[in-house]
User: Which sequence fits this backbone?
């Protein structure tokens, strides 16, 4: 993807639309048949004939300029996510800062999982300086409550979740930098869209066990990030 302009990246996932439907573009809320309401920098040079595109897999249509503007607003990793149905094109990555993910099995059972041991995941991210992919590039970010310890049952499904979390970590999707909804602090490391259980024997925060739906919820959340067992081939 080196050398690909945002417009080239976006076009890779689009089919041509000769006659735009009489609908609005849901990115800019202007008619698809008219010009894009979004005129950001660096989106010029798009001819009228290619001003609307259809995302190849889900079929949703947008102004090309609107998709390019949306892409430029993200972390420009070569992937695109349909803003309507969340279908992912390419491999989605996040802006998780550098750090470490470790795990091991501990010989205790979680509430609700009496028949197996427990996987403990330890995430450690130090504070640092925000990169261009973060909300305030060049400004420091804090990192509270690390190392953060998380727990999964050491069952077949728990181990599957762990495998997918390792992929999510590599794709920088477990944490992000932003404003904590718990503390209100900005420019800090926060959980991204994948829930973790951070309490072991109790459930005082709501982020503990028992929670019979937890593993299935996490699998759904991982899927929304483009991470499923099918593409999760054995690691070397
Ligand atoms: N454990 C697990 N998940 C949590 C926790 C927690 N203690 N608190 C919040 N979350 C979930 C929220 O439900 C939400 O979905 O993380 C998501 C983002 O919430 P924020 O409050 O923005 O995230 P963050 O600031 O990272 O978390 C707050 O979690 O692990 C602790 O030490 C951490 O005290 C901090 C707390
Ligand atoms: Zn538009």
Assistant:
């Amino acid at each position: 993807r080196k050398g690909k302009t945002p417009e080239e990246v976006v076009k890779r996932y689009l089919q041509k639309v000769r006659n735009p439907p009489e609908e609005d573009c849901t990115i800019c809320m202007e008619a698809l048949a008219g010009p894009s309401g979004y005129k950001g920098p660096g989106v010029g040079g798009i001819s009228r004939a290619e001003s609307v595109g259809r995302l190849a897999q889900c079929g949703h249509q947008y102004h090309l300029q609107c998709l390019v503007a949306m892409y430029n607003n993200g972390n420009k990793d070569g992937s695109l996510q349909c803003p309507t149905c969340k279908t992912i094109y390419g491999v989605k990555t996040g802006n998780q800062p550098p750090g470490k993910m470790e795990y091991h099995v501990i010989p205790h059972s979680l509430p609700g999982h009496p028949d197996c041991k427990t996987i403990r995941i330890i995430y450690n991210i130090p504070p640092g300086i925000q990169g261009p992919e973060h909300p305030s590039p060049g400004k420091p970010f804090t990192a509270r409550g690390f190392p953060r310890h998380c727990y999964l049952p050491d069952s077949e499904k728990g181990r599957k979740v762990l495998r997918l979390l390792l992929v999510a970590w590599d794709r920088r999707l477990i944490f992000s930098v932003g404003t904590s909804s718990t503390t209100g602090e900005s420019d800090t490391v926060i959980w991204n869209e994948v829930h973790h259980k951070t309490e072991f024997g109790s459930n005082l925060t709501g982020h503990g066990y028992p929670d019979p739906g937890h593993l299935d919820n996490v699998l759904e959340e991982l899927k929304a990030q483009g991470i499923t067992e099918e593409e999760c081939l054995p690691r070397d």
